[in-house]
């Protein structure tokens, strides 16, 4: 049972409370997880983060700094947020949840179905944390290995280079379901040649996956983005996407079907009541192939 809710007005005060209080003590942000009866261990004292001023979004030459207490809806509504982050946040199920759920709480929970973590990972995000040892900035990928109990203060997104394109997509079985598959892809195109690819996939298995084998396979093909075909694809639907990437000799490579197969083979899927291994692998292939094509086209995302 919760016996106390503290309302510190500064980071230092919050850290002091966390250090001094005894028992099952947790930070409280939007409360979407911690107020659940399934949250374990149940808290008996809460430190509410609202008064800490961690709800700012700031842009400077280094990139974007998002306060940990920003809600998902705030990310979507703020003009400083890049489109690819807005798209990822918009994938979260509905406005009620997005109005309450904070980015900090979301990262600490680190759910495999997260709709926004894959995008933050391909964007090279890092997090700023405050604890008894002082301030640390660590890569988000490292933080997610063991989120720990320190105070997450901010998320930093490095300035996205003009030649980097990020796209995300998710698939859910019904409008009221968590994502069965969620993916984000970033590509770097220099003079139309794709020189870097990063693919992160969530929801399909017990853990989020980086598809390194697929990335390496695609990079070794030395393919380029064909702007003329990309342009025409906007009017002609999904089919022309099959021919929007070609290798340096102009040969079409790889087609959407081939991409799907490549991804499906590489993915590790866990069956559950929502889908078999075969289904999840197939859908993951479709999602990643589409996200990759959208990234090559310069589209930030799509939604399910
Ligand atoms: C009904 C429902 C539907 C959902 N749908 C989706 C969806 O479609 N897609 C999706 O990706 N996610 C979804 N989620 C997950 C949701 O995004 C997360 O629950 C939410 O982001 C958690 O943030 P919060 O602010 O509510 O955290 P809280 O519940 O307040 O806290 C969660 C945990 O994080 C800790 N914490 C919070 N803030 C900090 C901080 N700054 N520093 C350190 N520790 C902190 C708390 O102590 C606690 O351990 C859903 C959740 C629910 C309940």
What key phrases describe this protein's structure?
four-stranded antiparallel β-sheet, binds flavin-adenine dinucleotide, Uridine Diphospho-n-acetylenolpyruvylglucosamine Reductase, domain 3, single chain, 32% helix, 304 residues, five-stranded antiparallel β-sheet, 11 helices, 25% strand, Enolase-like, domain 1, alpha+beta
Question: What does the model show?
Answer:
The protein is of the alpha+beta class. It has three domains: 48 residues; 106 residues, Uridine Diphospho-n-acetylenolpyruvylglucosamine Reductase, domain 3 (2-Layer Sandwich), CATH 3.30.465.10; 134 residues, 2-Layer Sandwich (Enolase-like, domain 1). Helix content is 32%, strand content 25%. The strands form four sheets. Strands 4-5-8-6-7 form a five-stranded antiparallel beta sheet, sandwiched between helices. The radius of gyration is 20 Å and the shape is globular. The two termini are 39 Å apart. About 8% of the residues have low confidence. The chain binds flavin-adenine dinucleotide (FAD). Flavin-adenine dinucleotide binds next to strand 2, helix 4, helix 5 and strand 8.
> DSSP helix count?
11
| Portion in beta strands | 25-35%
Output the helix-strand order. Answer: EHEEEEHHHHHEEHEEEEEHEHEHH
CATH homologous superfamily placement of the largest domain: CO dehydrogenase flavoprotein, C-terminal domain
| Oligomeric state | single chain
User: What is the number of beta strands?
Assistant: 14
Topology:
Blueprint (H helix, E strand, L loop, with lengths): L3 E3 L4 H10 L4 E4 L16 E4 L8 E4 L2 E5 L4 H6 L5 H8 L4 H6 L2 H7 L7 H6 L3 E6 L2 E6 H4 L7 E8 L5 E8 L9 E10 L2 E10 L6 E2 L1 H9 L2 E3 L1 H10 L8 E3 L8 H11 L10 H21 L7
């Amino acid at each position: 049972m919760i016996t106390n809710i503290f309302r510190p007005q500064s980071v230092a005060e919050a850290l002091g409370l966390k250090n001094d209080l005894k028992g099952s003590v947790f930070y409280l942000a939007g409360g979407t997880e911690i107020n659940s009866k399934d949250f374990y261990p149940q808290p008996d004292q809460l430190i509410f983060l609202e008064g800490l001023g961690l709800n700012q979004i700031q842009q400077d030459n280094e990139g974007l700094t998002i306060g940990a207490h920003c809600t998902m809806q705030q990310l979507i509504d703020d003009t400083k947020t890049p489109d690819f982050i807005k798209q990822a946040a918009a994938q979260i199920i509905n406005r009620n949840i997005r109005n309450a759920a904070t980015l900090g709480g979301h990262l600490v929970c680190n759910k495999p179905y997260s709709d926004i973590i894959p995008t933050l990972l391909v964007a090279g995000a890092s997090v700023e944390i405050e604890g008894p040892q002082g301030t640390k900035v660590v890569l988000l990928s490292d933080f997610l290995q063991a989120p720990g109990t320190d105070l997450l203060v901010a998320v930093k997104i490095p300035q996205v280079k003009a030649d980097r394109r990020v796209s995300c997509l998710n698939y859910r079985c019904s409008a009221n379901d968590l994502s069965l598959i969620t993916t984000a892809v970033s590509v770097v195109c220099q003079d139309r040649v794709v020189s870097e690819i990063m693919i992160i996939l969530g929801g399909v298995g017990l853990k989020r996956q980086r598809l390194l084998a697929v990335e390496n396979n695609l990079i070794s093909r030395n393919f380029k983005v064909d702007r003329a075909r990309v342009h025409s694809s906007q009017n002609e639907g999904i089919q022309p996407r099959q021919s929007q990437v070609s290798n340096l000799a102009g040969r079409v490579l790889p087609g959407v079907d081939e991409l799907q197969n490549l991804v499906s083979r590489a993915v590790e899927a866990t069956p559950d009541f929502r889908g078999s291994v075969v289904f999840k692998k197939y859908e993951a292939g479709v999602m990643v192939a589409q996200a990759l094509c959208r990234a090559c086209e310069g589209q930030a995302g799509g939604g399910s």
